[in-house]
C-alpha cells in the first residue's frame, strides 16, 4: 500500500484493532490473477492512463495480527467492495469444497481480485 494513514481504533468482531487506509498499486492488485484476467486489467489501466483506483483498509489487533481487510474500487459509478474478516486466529481450519454445480466460474473482469 502507499499513502497509508492511521484511521483510528475500532472493534472488529469483538476485537480491538487499529484501522489503516491506503491505495494499492497495479502490481499488488493483479498479483496472482489468472493471466487472461490480468491482461484485461492491464488494458483497463492503459485506457485510464494510470493505476486503477483501488483503496484498501487493514485492521490490526494489539498483537500485530491482521483481523480484517477491505478493498474497494469505483470506476464510473460501478463500485466493488471486498471485505475479508479473519477470526479464530491460530485455530484449525476446515474447508468444505462446493460441488461444481454450485459454483459460478469467473471469466471476465467484473470485480477486484478475480482470477
Automatic annotation (TrEMBL):
Matching InterPro entries: LolA/LolB/LppX
Protein name from the UniProt record: Uncharacterized protein
Originating organism: Streptomyces chartreusis
Amino acid at each position: 500500500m502507499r499513502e497509508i494513514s492511521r484511521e483510528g481504533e475500532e472493534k472488529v468482531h469483538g476485537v480491538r484493532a487499529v484501522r489503516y487506509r491506503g491505495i494499492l498499486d497495479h502490481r499488488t492488485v493483479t498479483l496472482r490473477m489468472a493471466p487472461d484476467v490480468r491482461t484485461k486489467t492491464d488494458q483497463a489501466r492503459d485506457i485510464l492512463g494510470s493505476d486503477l483506483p483501488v483503496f484498501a483498509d487493514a485492521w490490526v489487533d494489539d498483537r500485530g495480527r491482521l483481523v480484517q481487510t477491505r478493498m474497494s474500487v469505483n470506476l464510473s459509478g460501478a463500485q466493488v467492495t471486498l471485505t475479508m474478516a479473519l477470526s479464530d486466529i491460530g485455530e484449525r481450519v476446515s474447508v468444505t469444497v462446493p460441488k461444481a454445480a454450485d459454483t459460478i466460474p469467473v471469466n471476465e473482469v467484473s470485480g477486484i481480485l478475480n482470477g
